[in-house]
Specification:
By secondary structure, this protein is α/β, with parallel strands linked by helices. It is built from eleven helices and 14 strands. The chain has two domains: about 220 residues, 4-Layer Sandwich (Metallo-beta-lactamase, Chain A); about 80 residues, Arc Repressor Mutant, subunit A (Orthogonal Bundle), CATH 1.10.10.10. The structure holds zinc ion.
Amino acid sequence: MEAAKSIEHAFATPVELEPGILRLTLPLPTGPKHVHCYLLRGADGWTLVDTGLGLMETPWPEILEQVDGPVVRIFVTHMHPDHVGGAEAAAEATGAPVIQGRLDYAQCEQVWGSDRWPEQIAAWFTRQGATPAIADELIESGHVFADFVRFAWNPTLVEPGDEVDGWRVLWVPGHADGHLALERDGVLVAGDSLLAPITPAIGLYPESRPDPLGDYFDTLEAIAALSPRVSYGGHGATIEAPADRARAIAAHHDERLDRTAAFLTQEPRTGFDVSYDLFGRELPPIQRRFAIAETLSHLERLVAVGRAERREDDRTVAYTAPFSGGRPPV
Ligand SMILES: [Zn+2]
C-alpha cells in the first residue's frame, strides 16, 4: 500500500523531534538502508549535522524549502561515506561552510582523497590473513566506492572542546578515530558513537589508532557519566536513556571479548581465522572485511589488557593466548 510511498516521503522531509531540532533521513543503498542527518536551530540559521552519501542525488532544494531559514553551517561527525559523502553537494546547495574535526579530516583526506588507498588497505588485510579473493574485492569496491564519497575539501577544522553555535564538541572515538558529537542542554547529537538497536561497528584499520575498542570503552564511559537526557544517532532509534544504552553496549563488547579470547590457543591465528569463529564462514567478501576489522579491534583490546599476544613477521600478523608458563612454544 502506501508504506513504500510513506518511506519515500519520510526520506526527504525534515521531522521535528523537539523545538529547534529536526531530523532528516536519507536513503542508503546498503547496510541500515538509511542515515539520519539533523538540523539544529541557531540564532543565525540552521546547523546541518551530517550529509548522507554522495551521488545519491539528495533533493536539497526541496528539503531546504521545508525549513524556515537558511542552513548556515554544516557539521560532519565522522568521515564514513554515509556521513561525509554528501558534504560537497550539501555545501553547494546551501552555500554553507563545512566544519569537521581536525583528526577526522586528516583521515578523510587520506582514505577518500587518494587513489592508492584501496591497494594499501588490501595489502594490510592480506597481512591479517585475508584471502586473495577478499583483497581483490577490496581493491575493486574501494575504487567504486570512492566515487560515492564527495567530501568537502579544506573544511573549517575544529577540536574537541570547541563550540559550534553553542553546542559543545565532544571527542567520541571508537567507531571512527576522529568521531565528534555535539552536546547542549542534555541533548547529544551522537553520530554513530551511540546507536540503537544496532551497535556501532568498531573496527581496526590501517593507520588507525592502535586500540579502537579501548577508545570506545572510554567513549561509552564518558557518555554514561555525561548522562544526557536524549541521544540522536546516525541510524535507528532515538535513545531516551543514553547512559543505560552506553552501559549495555559496553557489556556487549565485554562478552565479545570473552568469546574472542576463547578462540585463542598457543597456535598463532590471524584476525581472518578468528573472524570465521566469531562471524561464521558464510560471508560475502565485503562483509568479511568488516568481520575481520571487528575481530581485530577485539584482538588488539585483548593484547592491550594482557589476555592475548600478537606475533608478527614480514608477512602476517597473528595472535595467541598469552603464554601461561611451562616451556615456551617453539
Ligand atoms: Zn553511519
